[in-house]
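Review this chain:
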Amino acid sequence: MNYTITFDDGIVYTSPDIRRKDPGWASEDGAKRVGIRELILKIPGGKALILKGFEAYNFFVEASQALGARGAKIDAFCFCGRWRGHVVVYRIDLKTGKVIKRLARDGQEYFGSATRGWRMGLMGEKAESGLCLLQ
């Protein structure tokens, strides 16, 4: 389960498996490049989540930790696209495999709260997102 970012300058970045390793969303040098044109997440079961044309993108994890346990367990991944004051949020539940799409106002994308870590997209593009089968 990894994502691929295509930047406006044509450079492509592919993350490691995000279930097992820090994908580098906050640390890879894409933040210093031009805007993101497209983000594709490969999902188990032969599907892909595609977000393209958004003004900004975000990725974060939901994690939990049992009392007395060491380390946290990742429960879900969230991929977001912001466009004209609204945010589309795709939440991928690792336990059930379900992908849930939600729409929210900008600044209320995570159950009524804002998130950090937004990366620049492209202004003036038509935003598109959805699940598709991998070929």
